[in-house]
User: Fold this.
Amino acid sequence: MSVLVYPESEDGNFKTVSFEVASYAREIAQNMQTTVTAVTFNNSEASELGNYGVDKVLNVKNDKLKNFNAEAYADVIKQAAEKEGAKVVVISQSANSKYLAPLLAVHLNAGYASNVVALPESTEPFTVKRTAFTNKAFNFTSMTTDVKIIGISKNAFGLKENPADAVVEEFSPTLTGEDFTVEVTNVDKARDKVTIADAEIVVSGGRGLKGPENWGILEDLADTLGAATACSKPVSDMGWRPHHEHVGQTGKPVASNLYIAIGISGAIQHLAGINASKVKVVINNDPEAPFFKAADYGVVGDAFEIVPKLNEKLKEFKAKNA
Amino acid sequence: MKILVCISHVPDTTSKINFTNDNTQFDSNGVQFVINPNDEFGLTRAMWFKEKQGASVDVINVGGPETEPTLRKALAIGADSAIRVNTAAKDGFQVAKQLAKVAGDGGYDLIIAGRESIDYNGGMVPGMLAALLGANFVNTCISLEVEGNDVKAIREIDGGKESVTTSLPLVIGAQKGLVEESDLKIPNMRGIMQARSKPLNVVEPDDVEVRTEAQKFEKPAPKGAVKLIDPDNLDELVNLLHNEAKVI
Ligand SMILES: Cc1cc2nc3c(=O)[nH]c(=O)nc-3n(C[C@H](O)[C@H](O)[C@H](O)COP(=O)(O)OP(=O)(O)OC[C@H]3O[C@@H](n4cnc5c(N)ncnc54)[C@H](O)[C@@H]3O)c2cc1C
Ligand SMILES: Nc1ncnc2c1ncn2[C@@H]1O[C@H](COP(=O)(O)O)[C@@H](O)[C@H]1O
Assistant:
């Protein structure tokens, strides 16, 4: 009756959010007085999960599962949940996990709560706190099914080390042709760049930067901080930046530790998408820009002067603290 | 090709969000409702299939009579007919079940829903619907082409995109990028006039289990005032980010 967790990996390594979902699963398991089992795909370092309280790892080795495939992955996780008799399945809210979760919910006859931001409020009834209205509110949802799937928003819980001896077992689920009806033909992804979904720090630019040719200062700052780059909606609409950098209510959600907004006015639709970030810094030459009301730190001034200066200061800081 | 577009009826993006009845209910007072933005992208793509490939396009909503103006708007944009399943939407699973019944009986080849609705942000309905129907599923879809039974699609992934091939019957989770922002269809006068005489069929719901229930709501705690930093003293910002906020 263990708690099952699905920690994602990329190129054989765990993503940071994987340790967060494992930490969360550990805490729930402790409350339910049971153990944590993880299911992993082609991962050679599965025992690392032991640092975050995972007792057992079911590792699937199968070349057919090299690329993420929602249907096939959901099927494998379902079989793992059944094998372990799991009543609670914990996943992240990455694009891939959000893709497979509803499929898994139907196949497991489970309830699914997405965007969960805290440990369950209670287990009888099983009630979780989730964001709703794109971060404009929270919603307490109770689940009545025997099996429950919980999707944890990034950075909502954090990493908690909790050493356990993760026993790694090979797991060979039964796959069928039905699992591979959607076939990946090409993946187009910058390998050397941090993604918005994974980043601890996001540096974002708006129309205040005037044109795509001016993004160099923002990219330099992002480089110094090891940050992902993002942008407001009009910036991606005008083709200054790629669509996948668009953040906000109708774009990607951002739940980083630090969000730096440069030349972004702070429209309600923009703020809704980035509100879940812990600390917000705004750089804008208009002291009346609405973003100042939503930010923790603000600098009123011209981005073209401030951003390069701030970058120099941060480089000095990094050199000193390296 | 028979296309069904799922339309969720949501508060306009500029809405202030409030609750009533001891924070158990969304306060729709003074709130403007619109077609969920992700569904608008899907509907516009459906109109392309109608114009270029002779597809028929129906729209559907699970909800009370208050959602009819939103369905009429979809008809004004160009859908052929609308269906309303006459029951309040309670959770993703219940909605997906109701949709699956109509979609299955209607023999649709392509079902377009949004990646998520901007009210409850469940991100559940399209995937559940696909699983219930045994149809193929492509989420966060930003490009879709159909030739006969063959489908080529592109989906957004974290940090990039992925091309896939699959076949009908198919459910997609649509989002921005599926069509150009500037191509989004808005109703014109002629469309609005025609919409009045297009069929809007109300069907009674199936008896369906609800798996998750919203008990109460809470608004985020108010934020403290911003700390302004002198542009000539950016060391202070670095210092605050390191020592106070502890984020660098
Ligand atoms: C249905 C709908 C959905 C939407 N969804 C989203 C969404 O998901 N995400 C999103 O971002 N937007 C969204 N929007 C758009 C949103 O309403 C705003 O229009 C948009 O966020 C504004 O982008 P911006 O801040 O880059 O540009 P602007 O509003 O033009 O702001 C530019 C800012 O830059 C500042 N500036 C100018 N020059 C400088 C300088 N030299 N140095 C420093 N600052 C400078 C200005 O003072 C101004 O505050 C949506 C709108 C609608 C209707
Ligand atoms: N009540 C509803 N009626 C019709 N379609 C819906 C309804 N709720 C959600 N959908 C569809 O499912 C998508 C995702 O919604 P959700 O799973 O609620 O985030 C929406 O963009 C709609 O296309």
User: Anything to note?
Assistant: The first helix of chain B runs from residue 37 to 53. Chain B has one domain: 2-216. The longest strand of chain B covers residues 136-147.
